[in-house]
Amino acid sequence: MIAETVCSAVAAAGLGIAVVTAYRKRFLAATRIAAYSLVPLGLVMTGVVDWLADTAFSPTAWAGFGVLGVSWLLFSTTRAVERRRGGTRKERKEARTAAPSEAVAPAASGPSLGPGSRQSTRPATAPKAQAAEDFSDIEAILKKHGI
Q1: 67-115 pLDDT, tens digit each
Q2: Which residues touch 50 (CB under 8 Å, ≥6 apart)?
Q3: What is the pLDDT of residue 131?
Q4: What is the DSSP string of 57-102?
Q5: Roughly how many angstroms between the first and final C-alpha of the chain, as a whole number?
Q6: CB of 104 within 8 A of CB of 110?
Q7: Reduced to 3 DSSP states, what percent helix, strand and coil does the chain have, rounded to the nearest 5?
Q8: Which of 33-47, 59-73, 90-104 shows the lowest per-residue confidence on average (mean pLDDT)?
Q9: CA 25 to chain centre
C-alpha cells in the first residue's frame, strides 16, 4: 500500500516538473520527463510493485535468487575454462588432427622461426634526402611558431 502511494506521488511530482519544463519552452525535455515519471505509475497499475513487494519479503524467493546465482557462477566458470583450453573437446580434437603440432625445445620461449619467405615492405635503406626534407619541414613549422 505504501509502495503504491510513493509511486503515485513520484509520478505526480514528475508530471508537475514536466509541466514547468514545457512552460519554459523545452518541450523535448518535458516529454522525456513525463515519460520517466509515468513509469512508476505504470508499474503500480500492472501489479509489478505488488509482485516485487511479495518477492522482497519471501525467503523462498531469495533462495531462488541464490540458486540462480550459483547456476550463473557455474556457467561462467565452465565458459572461462573452455576458453582457456581452446574450445570444446570436439573442436580441440579436430584442431589436433587438422594441423600436426610443431615441436619446441623445452628451454625455448617460443617456436623457432625458420628462414623467412616474407619480403619486407620497406626498402632496406631509406633515402637520406627524404629524411632531410622531413626535418627541414618540421624545423620551418617550429620556427614559424617561435619554438
Answers
A1: 888 899 988 988 888 788 776 677 777 777 876 555 555 565 655 566 6
A2: 3
A3: 59
A4: T-HHHHHHHHHHHHHHHHHHHHHHHHHHHTS-HHHHHHHHHHSPPP
A5: 73
A6: yes
A7: 70, 0, 30
A8: 90-104
A9: 37
- Position 107 scores a pLDDT of 60
Q: Is the pLDDT of residue 14 over 90?
A: yes
CA-to-CA distance for 86 and 29, rounded, in angstroms?
Answer: 50
Here the cell at position 96 is 589436433
Residue type, 20: V
C-alpha cell at 131: 629524411
In terms of Cβ atoms closer than 10 Å to its own Cβ (0-12, 13-18, 19+), residue 50 is middle
Q: What is the DSSP string of 20-49?
A: HHHHTT-HHHHHHHHHHHHHHHHHHHHTHH
Mean pLDDT score, 14-40 = 93
Q: Which three cell numbers stand for residue 11?
A: 509520478
How many residues in the chain? 147
* Alpha carbon distances (Å) from 64 to 11, 55, 107, 119: 32, 10, 52, 62
Residue with cell 600436426: 100
Q: What does the DSSP 8-state code read for residue 127?
A: -
